[in-house]
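Propose amino acids for all 169 sites.
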């Protein structure tokens, strides 16, 4: 009560986004909320090709047409052996928070990346093309329309860290 006999309003303290759980597989923190959506049914590299990006701006692919600047991103070049390149790629993915490799088969890796606060999931695919000595990439948000450039920034961060590891070989 304040001095006029009126009740005072309690002002809530701001709540910081905190991680409240850990995954069972290695203690990677998970998000406070979960807006995971459904895993797409068009994943995989069929004859070395990913599914095209949808019409929304929340996807990048190294296999998008050069004229499609909204979705086009460069593939990741490698100089080591294909086996070493895949090992380096896996190491980079596993270093990243809230990430899980879901499928690993031959020259293909599929991983899910979860956003920190809201738990949005992005599906990220990698296909190693031995003849071109490159790793094709596709990174797409499951939900929503805009990702504020997150998929592109993620692939560029992966490229940078991968190049660092490749230079050590």
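Proposal:
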């Amino acid at each position: 009560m304040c001095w006029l006999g009126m009740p005072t309003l309690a002002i809530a303290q701001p709540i910081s986004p905190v991680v409240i759980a850990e995954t069972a597989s290695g203690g990677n923190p998970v998000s406070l909320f979960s807006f995971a959506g459904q895993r797409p049914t068009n994943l995989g590299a069929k004859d070395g090709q990913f599914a095209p990006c949808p019409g929304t701006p929340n996807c990048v692919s190294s296999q998008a047409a050069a004229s499609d600047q909204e979705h086009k991103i460069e593939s990741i070049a490698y100089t080591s052996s294909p086996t070493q390149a895949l090992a380096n790629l896996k190491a980079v993915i596993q270093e990243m928070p809230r990430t899980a490799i879901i499928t690993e088969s031959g020259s293909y890796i599929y991983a899910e990346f979860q956003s920190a606060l809201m738990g949005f999931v992005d599906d990220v695919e990698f296909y190693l093309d031995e003849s071109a000595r490159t790793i094709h990439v596709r990174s797409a948000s499951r939900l929503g329309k805009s990702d504020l450039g997150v998929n592109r920034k993620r692939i560029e961060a992966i490229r940078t860290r991968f190049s660092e590891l490749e230079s050590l070989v």
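The chain has two helices and six strands. The longest strand covers residues 121-129.
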